[in-house]
Design brief:
The chain is α+β, with helices and mostly antiparallel strands and about 230 residues long. The protein has helices at about 20-35, 75-85, 170-190, 195-225, and strands spanning about 1-5, 5, 10-15, 45-50, 90, 105, 110-115, 115-120, 125-130, 145. The protein contains 4 helices and 10 strands. The longest helix is centred in the last third of the chain and has 30 residues, at about 195-225. It is elongated. It comes from Parnassius mnemosyne. Pfam families: Exo_endo_phos_2. InterPro entries: Endo/exonu/phosph_ase_sf, Endo/exonuclease/phosphatase, Swc5/CFDP1/2.
């Protein structure tokens, strides 16, 4: 996705459940790794990882300080994946109460876990992660990320110098503006509602050219009179 001078590669995932075989899980992560390799520099990986991160550990650099429940074996594998790809698990960076953390509940409603995550290598661009308490037929709750797209400011040295006007005096500027206004007014008399955008553009540029020629002719005549 390209937006505001920033290219984003967004990868949506659905990981095998806890009941799946280890081979299936490794195939899943290998597939996501390949998708990341084909992506650009700015990456978001999000979706149902079927893994419980639990409470982050103090020495982990890709997690924040907040979690839900206990870590599972699949949670350890997700941590490894995040480290391997330098992706921060953004759910863990925002303080929420437990009612606002869980993303999945069992059919009987007795078990609730946080297994849907938002990972990115642009953690400074994420302003919030929010679990939405929306009632609809699913055992998952949607997770919404507030993500800022910040344009890179150009260095002033990259801007060219401001064009200098070739009109040397106030009188020359005044004469040119009068000529241009006259040409544009005349242009309105020949304006056609059926004109294409290109035709309109050509008429306007032609009016500017005529006004410039008139200005040059005026300067030549003025110079002759002063000799």
């Amino acid at each position: 996705m390209h937006t505001n001078n920033l290219d984003l590669s967004i990868i949506q995932v659905y990981a095998p459940t806890e009941a799946s075989k280890e081979e299936e899980l490794e195939l899943f992560y290998n597939t996501v790794d390949k998708a990341i390799q084909l992506s650009g520099n700015n990456i978001i990986v999000m979706g149902d990882f079927n893994a419980k991160i639990g409470q982050p550990k103090p020495n982990e650099t890709i997690t924040g300080s907040y979690g839900y429940g206990n870590r599972s074996c699949r949670g350890n594998r997700l941590i490894e994946f995040a480290y391997e790809n330098n992706l921060a698990i953004m759910n863990t960076f925002f303080k929420k109460n437990n009612k606002q953390r869980w993303t999945w509940k069992s059919p009987d409603g007795n078990t609730k876990n946080e297994i849907d995550y938002f990972l990115t290598n642009l953690p400074r661009n994420v302003n919030n992660i929010q679990v939405l308490n929306i009632t609809y037929p699913s055992d998952h709750r949607p997770v919404r990320a507030a993500f800022s797209i910040i344009s890179r400011l150009k260095n002033r040295s990259k801007f060219g110098k401001r064009p200098q006007s070739q009109l040397k005096s106030h009188e020359e500027v005044k004469t040119y503006i009068e000529s241009l206004n006259s040409c544009l007014v005349n242009l309105l008399d020949y304006w056609n509602d059926q004109d294409t955008v290109q035709n309109c553009y050509d008429k306007i540029t032609n009016a500017i050219d005529i006004s410039l020629k008139n200005m040059i002719q005026h300067l030549i005549q003025t110079q002759r009179k002063t000799k």
